[in-house]
């Protein structure tokens, strides 16, 4: 996989508007961050772009054919949706439910989420169209909150596809995201991707926290193990077309209009936003009024130009916002205007890039003060437009761009008084400081423009998914039958998570009578040896299973006991490090409610399955780092299992059980089962001709996979009849 893979882009809308007039159909290219950012990959990789073309119901049959030809020529693939589907999927669930929630405004969600079925249906339609267009080697890049189920739907249709998803809006804190009734389905939908991209590291962290709390899946820094695959998560802050905004050209008509309307004002404050409740426009207007109150020297000398781009005008909440903004502008102008000076001018319209450049270059202060924003490209466009290295950017702390544009003046848009003081500081900033700040931001944005963003994401996506996906064991019935009936057989069985479900406390997983009976029946079969290969302490395995004719390998094979023989001694030299590890684990257990320390002859384990999921995971990561430093020169390993951190001597691992099993039964076929990373040591040591089976959905060395302990027990229960030449396949 390299930089030349064809790319299938998937977004809610195609990057064109359909214009029908005088019996003909024209396509007009749209502008904006997404259309601009993806134009390069679409053009250079000869890819296809899948999306809704807009409402084309008014077109007649001839115009439909003309439209299809025009779209095909541009490699644009339409997803047809009815007006009712768009209303429910787009306005209803996407913008009525997900938009406010993802912007940390759950109180703006409706009392009932009625349109989930429409969201699912639309996502399935998109997935069907993509699956029809996909061919081996393609990269699939899904965009934004409208299509968060598409990755998992595509994964079911195209198991081997490379799929990426990028969220252009913020991802809220896990406590906010938990408000969503369909939170698990949305997260699972996103986790169908190989690479999940966010605007900021904060969004990435919030997502990983939500996955941990809602699904119980813990990340390893920036990776998750889901569905037998490795899913990468990363921050890829989107840039702007720096060269386009840095160009010398502007818009002379806009310049003339600005000069004519300035009146006595010598300084222009500029705001450019979609008219959306997330943008904080009413608070910005109040902060400007507070500037006039608290800093009277700016009266008649400053003017605020607020550009409010129309959006979703058919939605009641947006009509109410426009009414509120119009009333505020009218009141403030009524209170403060004088002959020749009107403090606020509002324009309710869209502007093209040339017009925007003219606005950006005339402003002394650009005010970008959203209450919450994934990135906010207006802030970056303003900086890119300032070839003169003048002007000041006032930027909300809650915009994703704030993480990159540290030279901007930060502002809390919820604090109107403080925002007024920041506006005063911006208007008063000397030119030398303006230049120093602007130059630093421009250099950064030039290096991280829109092309580097798309290339960075697609490059990371091309590198994902290298690990093979284990095949479901249920699809290999004949192969399994041949293995268990081919001659001597040695079963190497992990215990926790393989023979019994993982328990909240280590002591809660004692074998039930049915399991004891099953193991006894297997061990009694002629030519069959059963080895339990567990991380459990030797004393625990002896108490639970010592009465059965089993080979017991305890503490990750650090100790073992053949059938009818005593336990071997623990490795020497443990006292040199064990006391320090014990003390550290006890400290972390004391400050993490629900965590506990388990002591074994060969090592120690710190369990946190009973702890709060997020607190336990955070404490586990911190403990791993602490132990890594503490044991830097000690002959030990620090390993992370399923909700457990263990310290064991170097060279002690489950792979040791393989040699012992071969000693016990020379020439036997080895069949191994295990559920976590420690079992990969066992799988790696298996000789050629052996079979490894991973339990659960984590990535593994195993070639086969089975769902859960109940399925393992049903499968093992089929072995006696298979070896007797009776019965039939019994796997789940």
Secondary-structure topology with pairs:
Layout: E1 7-13, E2 16-21, E3 24-29, H1 33-44, E4 48-52, H2 61-73, E5 76-78, H3 83-102, H4 116-133, E6 139-143, H5 150-157, E7 162-166, H6 174-177, H7 183-190, E8 195-198, H8 201-215, E9 223-226, E10 229-235, H9 242-246, H10 252-261, E11 267-274, H11 281-294, E12 302-309, H12 316-336, E13 344-347, H13 353-362, E14 365-368, H14 377-385, E15 392-396, E16 409-411, H15 416-428, H16 431-447, H17 450-462, E17 471-472, H18 477-484, E18 489-493, H19 513-523, E19 528-533, H20 538-545, E20 551-554, E21 559-561, H21 575-590, E22 596-599, E23 604-607, H22 613-630, E24 636-641, E25 644-649, H23 656-664, E26 669-674, H24 677-685, E27 691-695, E28 704-706, H25 709-717, H26 719-723
Parallel strand pairs: 1-4, 1-6, 4-5, 6-7, 7-8, 8-10, 11-12, 11-14, 12-13, 14-15, 15-16, 17-28, 18-19, 18-26, 19-20, 26-27, 27-28
Antiparallel strand pairs: 2-3, 9-10, 20-21, 22-23, 23-25, 24-25
Tally the helices.
26
Tell me the domain tally. Answer: 4
Specify the CATH architecture of the largest domain: 3-Layer(aba) Sandwich
Helix fraction bin: 40-55%
Which class best fits the helix and strand makeup? alpha/beta
User: What do the pLDDT scores average to?
Assistant: 89
Shape: elongated
Largest sheet: 8 strands, mixed
Radius of gyration over all CA atoms, rounded: 32 Å
Per DSSP E runs of 2 or more residues, the count of β-strands stands at: 28
- The level-1 CATH class of the largest domain: Alpha Beta
> What low-confidence regions span 5 or more consecutive residues with pLDDT below 50?
726-732
The span between the termini is 35 Å
What is the spatial order of strands in the main beta sheet? 5-4-1-6-7-8-10-9
- Strand portion: 15-25%
Under CATH, the homologous superfamily of the largest domain reads Glycogen Phosphorylase B
CATH topology of the largest domain: Rossmann fold
């Amino acid at each position: 996989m390299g930089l030349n893979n064809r790319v299938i882009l998937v977004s809610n809308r195609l990057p064109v508007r359909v214009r029908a007039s005088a019996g003909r159909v024209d396509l007009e290219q749209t502008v904006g961050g997404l259309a601009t950012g993806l134009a390069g990959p679409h053009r250079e990789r000869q890819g296809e772009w899948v999306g809704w073309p807009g409402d084309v119901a008014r077109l007649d049959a001839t115009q439909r054919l003309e439209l299809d030809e025009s779209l095909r020529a541009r490699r644009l693939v339409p997803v047809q949706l009815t007006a009712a589907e768009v209303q429910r999927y787009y306005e209803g669930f996407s913008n009525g439910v997900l938009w406010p929630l993802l912007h940390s405004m759950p109180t703006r969600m409706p009392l009932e989420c009625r349109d989930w079925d429409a969201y699912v249906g639309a996502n399935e339609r998109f997935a069907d169209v993509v699956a029809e267009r996909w061919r081996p080697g393609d990269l699939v890049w899904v965009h934004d909150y409208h299509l968060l189920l598409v990755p998992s739907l595509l994964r079911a249709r195209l198991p081997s596809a490379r799929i990426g998803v990028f969220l252009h809006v913020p991802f809220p804190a896990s406590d906010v995201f938990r408000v969503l009734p369909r939170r698990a389905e949305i997260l699972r939908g996103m986790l169908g991707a190989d690479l999940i991209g966010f605007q900021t590291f904060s969004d990435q962290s919030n997502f990983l926290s939500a996955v941990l709390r809602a699904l119980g899946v813990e990340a390893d820094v920036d990776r998750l193990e889901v569905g037998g695959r490795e899913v990468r998560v990363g921050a890829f802050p989107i840039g702007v077309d720096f060269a386009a905004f840095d160009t010398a050209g502007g818009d002379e008509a806009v310049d003339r209009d600005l000069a004519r309307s300035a009146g006595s004002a010598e300084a222009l404050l500029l705001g450019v936003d979609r008219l959306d409740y997330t943008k904080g426009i009413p608070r910005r207007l109040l902060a400007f009024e507070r500037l006039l109150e608290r800093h009277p020297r700016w009266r008649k000398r400053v003017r605020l130009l607020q550009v409010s781009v129309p959006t979703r005008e058919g939605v009641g909440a947006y009509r109410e916002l426009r009414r509120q903004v119009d009333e505020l502008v009218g009141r403030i102008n009524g209170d403060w205007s004088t002959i020749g000076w009107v403090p606020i001018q509002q324009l309710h319209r869209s502007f093209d890039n040339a017009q925007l450049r003219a606005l950006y270059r005339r402003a002394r202060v650009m005010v970008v003060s959203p209450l919450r924003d994934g990135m906010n490209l207006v802030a970056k466009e303003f900086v890119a437009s300032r070839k003169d290295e003048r002007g000041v950017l006032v930027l909300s702390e809650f915009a994703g761009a704030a993480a990159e544009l540290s030279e901007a003046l930060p502002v809390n848009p919820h604090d109107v008084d403080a925002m007024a003081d920041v506006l005063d500081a911006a208007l008063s900033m000397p030119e030398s400081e303006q230049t120093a700040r602007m130059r630093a931001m421009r250099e950064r944005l030039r290096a991280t423009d829109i092309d580097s963003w798309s290339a960075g994401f697609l490059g990371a996506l091309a590198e994902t998914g290298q690990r093979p996906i284990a095949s479901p064991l249920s699809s290999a019935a004949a192969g399994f039958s041949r293995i268990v009936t081919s001659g001597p057989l040695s079963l190497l069985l992990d215990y926790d998570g393989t023979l019994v479900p993982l328990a909240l406390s280590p002591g809660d997983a004692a074998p039930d009578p049915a399991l004891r009976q099953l193991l006894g029946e297997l061990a009694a079969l002629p030519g069959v040896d059963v080895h339990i290969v567990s991380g459990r302490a030797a004393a625990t395995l002896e108490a639970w299973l010592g009465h059965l004719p089993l080979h017991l390998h305890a503490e990750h094979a650090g100790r073992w006991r053949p059938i009818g023989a005593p336990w071997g001694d623990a490795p020497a030299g443990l006292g040199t490090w064990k006391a320090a590890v014990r003390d550290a684990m006890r400290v972390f257990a004391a400050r993490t409610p629900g965590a506990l320390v388990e002591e074994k002859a060969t090592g120690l384990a710190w369990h946190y399955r009973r702890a709060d999921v997020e607190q336990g995971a955070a404490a586990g990561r911190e403990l791993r780092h602490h132990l890594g430093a503490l044991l830097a020169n000690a002959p030990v390993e620090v390993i992370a299992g399923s909700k457990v951190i263990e310290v064991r001597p170097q060279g002690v691992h489950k792979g040791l059980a393989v040699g012992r099993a071969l000693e016990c039964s020379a020439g036997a076929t080895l069949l191994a089962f295990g559920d976590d990373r420690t079992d990969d040591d066992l799988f790696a040591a298996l000789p050629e001709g052996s079979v490894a089976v991973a339990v659960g959905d984590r990535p593994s060395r195993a070639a086969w996979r089975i769902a859960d302990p109940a399925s393992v027990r049903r499968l093992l229960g089929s072995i006696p009849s298979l070896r007797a030449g009776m019965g039939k396949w019994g796997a789940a």
